[in-house]
From TrEMBL, chains A, B:
Keyword Disulfide bond appears in the UniProt entry: no
Keyword match GTP-binding: no
Protein's UniProt name: Acetolactate synthase large subunit or other thiamine pyrophosphate-requiring enzyme
Gene3D superfamilies per the UniProt record, alphabetical: 3.40.50.970
Domain (Thiamine pyrophosphate enzyme TPP-binding): residue spans on this chain: 385-515
Keyword tags: Thiamine pyrophosphate
Thiamine pyrophosphate enzyme N-terminal TPP-binding domain boundaries: 1-109
Pfam families registered for this protein in UniProt: TPP_enzyme_C (PF02775), TPP_enzyme_N (PF02776)
Length: 518, 518
């Protein structure tokens, strides 16, 4: 048994049995150790952004971390953009980053770099194993941090700690995970008082407060007090659709967000961050609530958000069995416009046709903007979105969710510009036979940036702006790219095409991609 | 005029007229400023690894930096792996990384991250602009650092420094670039003494010491003294082929490298690093020269390497017009084996058919290993290689070299595994109509890692090792992927196929990809 074996066993002892990986030479002992443990499912990504994005999607659905295996500083660097999203989603994840042997670092070999400096910005927890004897303790520490901070834990495994021999010992410890932190009675009382104050109050939710049961509790509180329910602009996972509570998010466009929050006198935050703009704009505020809006912290990340809501409901005297206002599902006849395909037609078709239990992974950016509103009456589903604004999460996120939930259909709504960032993830979908239908909104531009250019006063684009904001020369042929990576695909140019392809994709198992030309 | 305008003008005043870009919202004022200056050529990459890899290839051939435009921490993060390669190559480059407005950072908006911590590991120079008034001075500082350290300069441009208004003023300053540093007479004397000592001496070159003229000088020194000429394992650019001096590199495999250097008593380094292994292996040394090998520093990066060699030649009394031993070119008849395609057949065919003035970008890893040896008698060409071991440089490197040298054919030798890391770069090749033929060695595995697994004693791969080291399920269809991004392509399964496709690609202009199934 060596350090790498011990690492695998410690992960397995704590129910971590999926490892998304892109290994290199410095991780060969770890690969060999994984190879000795077929109960660990190793999933290869052909680029590390696929690896980390998939680990994010997996954990959002599995409520436990996957491990990742990343090769030295550059491999970690390739995974950082999606770690940024995972960090913002507070997704539990354990990244195992291989490093050179400790005694070898002094040589500054070609692949050496400052892993610590690279890892810290995108990790909620960071640690480095010194030698094989420390593997188990450090791995448990990473696991507890991932589960309870919660968030991204990055653990560096030097090659000599991986190959270092260990005496055969007791099996690794299963971590005695502490429960999520309870909020204080004072925080609950203060929130209750705010709700009773007669002011206009919003409850701002995120994280596990967006699971169906917690949302029902929040709705009972809102119904009893007249408070408004809101969630962050971007959230890790929302349980929604027919029979569940509908909740709006804080709008992304800064003017819309300011308008939506203008009348709020007090905001009770439940694991959430006080809303701020995504970007600064000259002459516009960064804070989206009024300066005089009172912020009341009911719960922070790492607190038991569902429990906090239940206590708050209790404090204000709402019966646990009080009725909940839920979405009713689509009641009218299917009324899709025919003919030329548009963003909205795709969004509406997907919303109407969404199968029960689907997992929607949404990186449709501008093109699918209307989907969220249209789908509150869809069949019950989970909704996963890009959380940190770092594009290139969609294809891997869908892959990870599909690994976590093999019996559920994953529907990925994908903008073309962002999809290209981790297009290699389609291959992983094919290799693992993942049950995903990817809808690419092929608008052939960075549409969001075209809007932002107009925001800075540029309405007539010259050659350089055209060259940086459009993707139409040449047009990306998503059908060819998908087939090139082993994913069946079709192109839709009319609503009828789209409905036929989407229906077919829902009826089959395995990955399918639809290029929706909009 | 705003800060972004001033940045563009300062770049242009210093002959920086190419900007590889992937912009985001925080860079819209910079995009608008670029759009007002059509003399700046903006080249879009659909992923930042394409952007930074292309900037590397451009500067290796242009001997001046390109600018890059990267979006915040995550955009920079996506570009880091190829910045790692550029840092190791000491490629001059100016990365402009957009950031949130300075006053907005306190909000920790979704896309905020610690850019400083991310940038420093992969940058030889790092700076942050505080406000519009500082743009010109900081940009000049970045330029001088890029040119004279030389290396990667990363400059953060906050949105408010970009949009901050400036009074119309004098045109920006052209930097008065200091010359490359001269080495000391003492260093030259010591190197000369070493060469005269009667010991077995190697001259280890890199950087501009590998241009044809400097190599000729080095060869005269070697011929006169019996010293051996060597270059680093990986180098930025080598001028070689028929009529030029042939030089071997330090082998990549550790055992071969140790054997190659075992008899060296003294090593004179010319801009190079003392050879160390790429990776540590249990029981094997990290340093590739003998412990008692004397290291003599003739020149360091940033020194004038060509001048240092000329001075050394002068010191030991070698006439500047002394004969040079050069490669003679292929003298025998074209003798390619026919039939089934192999790595070696591809390498030999490319070496034989290489057109004069070609730029070879080599990321063929294991599959093209023999090309370097076979091509010393090819037509005169430049040879560019992955320098930092961070895979995913090949496709972008070729794109950048082609932008720098529109009249030369670029031949990219590309392993399939590493090619997938930045496969999006094919689209940039198509959009810019770059004259590149990409040869993909489709061995459908991480062949180098299969070898490394055997190095750690694993000869029978189980399911997990298979799943992490092979790429054959499903096989990547490079022809479809290339066509999907607008690049013409063909597949070769026999030598005859390959020769026909390669010949056709050489005769046409524009990008073409050959999937060589080996």
């Amino acid at each position: 048994m060596n350090g790498a074996d011990r690492l695998c066993e410690t992960l397995l002892a704590n129910d971590i049995d999926v490892c998304f990986a892109n290994p290199g030479t410095s991780e060969m002992h770890f690969v060999a150790a994984l190879d000795r443990r077929p109960q660990m499912r190793c999933v290869l990504g052909l680029f590390e952004g696929v690896v980390t994005g998939a680990a994010d999607g997996y954990a959002r659905m599995a409520d436990k971390p996957a491990a990742t295996l990343l090769h030295l500083g550059p491999g970690l660097a390739n995974g950082l953009a999606n770690l940024h999203n995972a960090r913002r989603a507070r997704t539990p994840m354990i990244n195992v980053v291989g490093d050179h042997a400790t005694y070898f670092l002094k040589h500054d070999a070609p692949l050496a770099s400052d892993i610590d400096s690279l890892a810290r910005p995108m990790s909620q927890w960071y640690g480095r194993i010194g030698r094989a004897e420390e593997v188990e303790a450090k791995t448990l520490e990473a696991y507890e941090a991932a589960m309870r901070l919660p968030g991204v834990a990055t653990l560096v495994l030097p090659a000599d700690a991986a190959w270092g021999e260990l005496p055969a010992g007791a099996p690794p410890r299963r971590a005695s995970l502490p429960p999520f932190r309870s909020v204080t009675p004072e925080a609950v009382r203060q929130a209750a008082e705010t709700l009773r104050s007669g002011r206009r109050v919003a409850l701002l939710l995120t994280g596990r407060a967006l699971r169906a049961d917690a949302l029902a509790t929040a709705d009972r509180i809102a119904a009893a007090t007249g408070a408004r329910l809101l969630m962050q602009t971007s959230n890790s996972r929302v349980e929604r659709g027919a029979g569940r509570v509908a909740i709006d998010n804080v709008p992304y466009p800064v003017d819309a967000a300011l308008a939506a929050l203008a009348d709020i006198d007090a905001m009770i935050v439940v694991g959430a961050k006080v809303p701020v703009a995504f970007f600064a704009y000259p002459g516009k505020p960064g804070l989206l609530v009024r300066e005089d809006c009172e912020i009341v912290d009911l719960a922070r990340p790492g607190d038991d958000l569902a429990e906090a809501l239940a206590w708050l409901a209790d404090e204000i005297g709402v019966a646990a069995e009080a009725a909940v206002r839920v979405s009713r599902g689509f009641t009218d006849e299917m009324a899709l416009p025919g003919g030329t395909l548009t963003d909205d037609a795709v969004a509406l078709a997907v919303a109407r046709m969404l199968p029960e239990g689907a997992i929607v992974c949404d990186e449709s950016i501008t093109a699918g903007a209307r989907f969220f509103g249209l789908s509150q009456d869809s069949a019950p589903h989970d909704y996963l979105r890009i959380t940190g604004g770092s594009i290139g999460i969609g294809i891997p996120l869908a892959a990870g969710a599909a690994v976590a939930c093999p019996d559920r259909k994953v529907v990925a709504l994908q903008a073309d510009g962002s999809g290209m960032f981790t297009v290699q993830g389609l291959w992983t979908q094919a290799r693992e036979r993942l049950d995903i239908v990817t809808v690419v909104f092929a608008n052939r531009s960075y549409a969001i940036l075209e809007g932002e250019m107009r925001n800075v006063g540029v309405n007539h684009f010259g050659r350089n702006a055209e060259r940086m904001l459009t993707l139409d020369d040449p047009a990306l042929d998503w059908v060819s790219m998908a087939r090139g990576m082993g994913v069946e695909a079709g192109r839709a140019e009319t609503v009828e095409d789209f409905v036929r392809l989407f229906d077919g994709a829902l009826r089959q198992r395995g990955p399918f991609l639809i290029e929706a030309v909009v």
